[in-house]
Design goal:
mainly beta; 15-stranded mixed beta sheet; 8-stranded parallel beta sheet; 8% helix; 37% strand
């Protein structure tokens, strides 16, 4: 009896498993010879429309779409966990859409859309192509484009992601000529990786999301995005290091609008003295006209990228970890001062991990004579600093130091490499005396040092100063 009971229970469990599990079914769609009255279970009996195949499918099924162009005028409801993919190679299926209704509305979890070409054929005022309202959604290997003009006001998006979703996985897609590749609402988690996005205003997400951006690529020149990623203000800011996110995404231009910054900050700020546009906000499409404007705009650890030109003004760098770089090099990018008693480029005390220039990306930085009343330089380190790199520049003394730092202050790991030091540390043809006596008397013309970093007559707080591969051709005496 006991043996018969065990056999019965075993058979019952097999029956229950067979009832509760279902084999994955493949459905087929053909743009040329499909028929919605067919069962869709083979290429020979394919459905004519994607909607018909989705309606016939069940959770876990795969819908294979035959090569061709499909013009879709109504929303395809993805209300079951299915996968959509071409029968053949990636890109062999094009779906055209227009108007304002969703092309796809995803309301079931674990939906996957792969390797399709989706084209918005008009520039209607508002159109979200794929609405995602369920978790664990995947968009992979697709090409999605529209007719958006960068100066237009119409809103078209490849994706609109509802708040609170998890498991978002957007990877290996190309998205262009839409206002946004995607708008991601509050508290969404997931990954956006290895996509190529251009001709848009960038991904938009709320600052309380936990989206990992990795390996994404962006347009340049005429195809540049306005921003690559824009982070909107929410209660929590989970993107406190946008410079690091930029670095892992091919120098993405990221704006973080969180209220804790006071004003929005950028991972990369662009400057171009020749830009004639009326809007100037530091983006690659609307750069600032001056470097001074860029300093408060750049995020900690970010970059200021300067186009060729002459920039007049006194620059004080007070942001940690930033890099000031030119695109054309020192021969065509000049920073000049016109104010007596001010440094041309100064680092405020305690500002660390700063880079000024790089090989082929430096500046010609020219000082301005302070008339002897105070000690200044073309480049000057005010107070204490660590991890400063000054490289690839021509630093021109003009009556004061070429480069200097405050007397007897702590400086550590200062790298001065591949610069040219030129000019004169006094005014006129000849200096007016020598030595330290009277060097701070107004009107004196006692020459300064061309290069002077740290030290004192009794104790030094200067260490790990590396001065290598520099050309010193300036004049420091008569």
């Amino acid at each position: 009896m006991e043996k018969k009971l065990r056999i019965f229970l075993t058979l019952l469990s097999i029956v229950l498993i067979s009832i509760t599990t279902k084999a994955q079914t493949n459905y087929y769609v053909s743009a040329t010879d499909g028929d919605n009255l067919s069962d869709g279970l083979s290429a020979a009996t394919a459905k004519a429309t994607i909607t018909a195949a989705v309606n016939a499918a069940s959770t876990g099924d795969i819908i294979h779409i035959g090569a061709g162009t499909y013009v879709q005028s109504s929303t395809i409801q993805l209300n079951k966990s299915v996968t959509l993919k071409p029968v053949g190679i990636a890109g062999s299926v094009t779906i055209q859409t227009s108007g304002s209704a969703y092309l796809f509305l995803v309301t079931a979890p674990q939906v996957s859309i792969r390797d399709l070409v989706i084209t918005k054929t008009d520039d209607s005022p508002s159109h979200n192509l794929i609405g995602v309202q369920a978790s664990n959604f995947e968009l992979a290997g697709c090409t999605i484009s529209g007719q958006y003009a960068m100066t237009g006001g119409n809103v078209s998006r490849a994706l609109e992601i509802s708040g609170g979703l998890t498991g978002l996985n957007i990877h290996d897609n190309t998205i262009y000529n839409l206002r946004q590749p995607g708008y991601i609402n509050n508290n969404v988690t997931g990954t956006i990786a290895n996509n190529h996005v251009y001709g848009t205003r960038g991904w938009v997400l709320l600052s309380d999301c936990s989206i990992s951006f990795t390996g994404n690529q962006w347009g340049s020149g005429a195809n540049a995005n306005y921003y690559d990623i824009a982070i909107l203000n929410a209660a929590v800011n989970k993107y406190t290091d946008i410079a690091a996110v930029s670095a892992t995404n091919n120098n993405a231009n990221i704006e973080n609008q969180h209220s804790s910054y006071g004003a929005p900050v950028l991972s990369i700020v662009y400057v171009d003295a020749s830009y004639a546009g009326t809007t100037k906000n530091g983006s690659v499409r609307d750069p600032y006209a001056t470097i001074t404007q860029a300093i408060p705009r750049v995020a900690t650890g970010g970059k200021i990228i300067v186009a060729p030109g002459t920039y007049t003004g006194n620059i004080t760098i007070n942001k940690q970890g930033i890099s000031l770089l030119s695109t054309g090099g020192a021969s065509v990018t000049h920073i000049n001062s016109t104010v007596i008693g001010l440094n041309t480029v100064a680092l405020s005390s305690g500002t660390n991990n700063v880079t000024i220039g790089a090989p082929g990306k430096g500046f010609t930085i020219t000082g301005f004579d302070s008339n002897g009343s105070s000690e200044t330089g073309a480049v000057y380190l005010l107070g204490s600093h660590t991890n400063i790199r000054i490289e690839g520049n021509e630093i021109v003394a003009n009556g004061e130091h070429g480069i200097g730092s405050n007397f007897n202050t702590a400086i550590d790991n200062i790298i001065i490499n591949q610069n040219t030091f030129s000019g004169k540390t006094f005014a006129g043809a000849e200096p007016g005396g020598c030595g330290s006596t009277g060097q701070f008397v107004a009107g004196n013309n006692i020459p300064r040092q061309l290069v002077v970093l740290g030290g004192s007559n009794t104790v030094t707080n200067s260490k790990n100063v590396s001065f290598t591969n520099n050309r010193v051709i300036g004049t420091t005496g008569g």
